[in-house]
Design brief:
By secondary structure, this protein is of the alpha/beta class. Helix content is 54%, strand content 8%. It contains 16 helices and six strands. Helix 1 (4-15) runs antiparallel to helix 2 (19-35), helix 5 (92-106) packs parallel to helix 7 (132-143) and helix 13 (251-262) crosses helix 14. The protein is globular, with a radius of gyration of 24 Å. The termini are far apart. 31% of the residues are buried.
Length: 327
């Protein structure tokens, strides 16, 4: 069973309401039992711990970094998302890969006890409006940890060496506080080092990022998202545990999103398949805006149900905008 030091640590962490330490010591007990040949007991104990972490993934609310350290206020914005994976409409293969990441994160202690680490450095690529940014929110919401968005306007400056110094501050924060850290529009710092129009400072920033992410051993999730994967330096890809591609939704997914978004207002008049076909080529973000616009039209005109022409008009308007955004 547990040795004297582990028993004392368990009791002390319980009295101090330090759930993270309590579970960590419990995992040590399981690891020790496994080494002594009590494999069944160790496995049962790990399952209990994983079940506890899944139900209470973040029992202590973290102190927002931007309140704790003033220097980070201009570099990170913090939020506590409530969205879940079930709120997203994505291709089956993308959902499966995100589910795998969440499963590994919830088994963090079990993996670490075997010298393994969960996937936590992610690169999301694809066109705008297809769910990359929302994915970061979902990961944070599912795991019960804060979402920190890197503010590029605060990170990238014109002064020599300053961007690299600020990048170091961000990675110091990553090491100190668990959360999901989103580098959106990542190509602004991950541009290929061979691009002729890039100055030496940008190359230094990229080299620094490569070094920081390579050396990072924290339990935070680092999520980088880009609309321009072709401009990323080749050396970046091997630094990530997973590269997930997002594409414009097919008609079937558009139909599913329309149905889920409009189900509380729909009538027999709505032909979702036909509407989805007319919306082909639009992004998930476009479909969400179409649904909002249609519902507002219904509310403004005091109708109790949506009309097909309202949704069709919103789709046509969005298609025209996408075909000629400068009109």
């Amino acid at each position: 069973m547990a040795n004297a030091d582990q028993i004392k640590a368990l009791i002390k962490s319980f009295l101090e309401q330090d759930e993270d330490r309590f579970l960590a010591v419990a995992m040590q007990v399981a690891a020790n039992q496994a080494k002594r040949g009590n494999a069944k007991f160790a496995s049962e104990l790990r399952e209990i711990i994983d079940e506890a972490k899944a139900k209470f993934p973040n029992p202590r609310e973290p102190i927002p970094i931007n309140r704790a350290k003033g220097e980070l206020t201009d570099l990170l914005s913090v939020s506590y998302p409530k969205v879940r994976l079930s709120d997203m409409v994505l291709p089956r293969e993308v959902l499966a890969r995100l589910s795998r990441i969440l499963k590994e994160q919830r088994s963090l202690n079990k993996l670490q006890s075997h010298g393994l680490r969960p996937r936590r450095k992610l690169l999301l690529v694809g066109p705008p409006g297809c769910g990359k940014t929302m994915t970061a929110s979902v990961l944070a919401g599912e795991l019960g940890i804060p979402l920190f968005v890197v503010r590029l306007d605060g990170l990238i400056t014109k002064y020599l060496g300053e961007t690299t110094s600020k990048l170091r501050i961000i990675f110091d924060a990553i090491a100190e506080s668990r959360g999901v850290y989103l580098f959106d529009e990542f190509d602004s710092i991950g541009t290929h080092r061979g691009f002729l129009n890039e100055v030496g400072e940008i190359r230094r920033v990229l080299n620094s990022f490569l070094m920081y992410i390579e050396n990072d051993r924290s339990n935070a999730l680092i999520v980088c998202a880009t609309n321009h994967p072709q401009s990323l330096d080749d050396a970046l890809y091997r630094r990530f545990d997973d590269v997930i591609s997002y594409n414009q939704p097919e008609v079937e997914l558009i139909e599913k999103l329309l149905e889920s978004s409009l189900k509380d207002y729909s009538s027999k008049d709505l032909k979702f398949k036909a509407l989805a076909t007319s919306a082909k080529g639009l992004s998930f973000a476009d479909i969400s805006e179409i649904c909002k616009s249609s519902i507002k039209e219904m509310v403004i005109h005091d109708r109790s149900e949506l009309r097909s022409e309202d949704v069709s008009a919103a789709i046509q308007e969005r298609q025209e905008f996408r075909s000629n955004p400068n009109k």
